[in-house]
Write a structure and sequence with these properties.
There is one protein chain. It is globular, with a radius of gyration of 17 Å. The protein has helices spanning 7-13, 16-22, 34-37, 46-63, 86-93, 126-130, 163-183; strands spanning 29-31, 68-71, 75-85, 105-111, 142-148, 155-160. The chain is 38% helix and 21% strand. Strands 1, 2, 3, 4, 5 and 6 form a six-stranded antiparallel β-sheet that branches. It has 184 residues and is of the alpha+beta class. It is built from seven helices and six strands; from the N terminus they run ααβααββαβαββα.
């Protein structure tokens, strides 16, 4: 079972245009890719922005050995990029914080098939992944989440989820809370 989806597939499924449309929807977060890191501070033309995006992706390819992350209660997610809250980004840009001082937050996605099964998963073959076309940020079967890693463990913020997955997550959360209450 692979713990990695080939970067060629990721680049095909999540091209520059995906990020270009997603960035305004990331309420309160900024991704680390320099093409989008400081849109409020620096205006860059489309070609330079695309060049920065591609250069960052090539650099990230070297680090992208394990890009499937498992987080409860969702399960497996595909890691797309590192991100920061807007306040953290502002502090980094002004020199008040170093990137190494900021807890890691990860922009992650999961695409579900028509039966509600995750597509970006360790038990899905590369041949199946190779058949997935470009993914649109507003695809109704796409879950977009920010996973923040902290000393207390991972915390998940769901930016968008298919309704049936949202209900499943809510049910699991309430079930876990009820079980915790019963133990106390």
């Amino acid at each position: 079972m692979p713990k990695n989806i080939n970067t060629d597939h990721i680049e095909r499924m999540f091209p520059f245009e995906f990020y270009e449309e997603l960035i305004p929807q990331l309420a309160g977060y900024t991704i680390m890719n320099p093409a989008f890191f400081s849109p409020d501070h620096i205006q860059i033309d489309e070609n330079k922005k695309r060049g920065l995006f591609d250069k960052h992706r090539k650099e990230m390819e070297k680090l992208n050995q394990l890009n499937i992350l498992s987080v409860e209660p969702i399960g497996e997610l595909l890691i797309l990029d590192i991100c920061y809250t807007n306040d953290q980004s502002e502090a980094i840009l002004k020199g008040g914080l170093l990137r190494s001082q900021v807890p890691i937050s990860i922009l992650s996605v999961q695409l579900y098939d028509s039966s509600g099964q995750p597509v970006f998963a360790s038990d899905v073959s590369e041949e199946s992944i190779a058949n997935i076309p470009e993914v649109l940020w507003d695809d109704p079967n796409l879950l977009i989440a920010i996973v923040s890693l902290s000393e207390e463990g991972p915390k998940i913020g769901i930016l968008k989820a298919p309704p049936q997955i949202e209900q499943l997550i809510e049910h699991q959360i309430f079930e876990n809370e009820d079980a915790a209450d019963d133990q106390n």
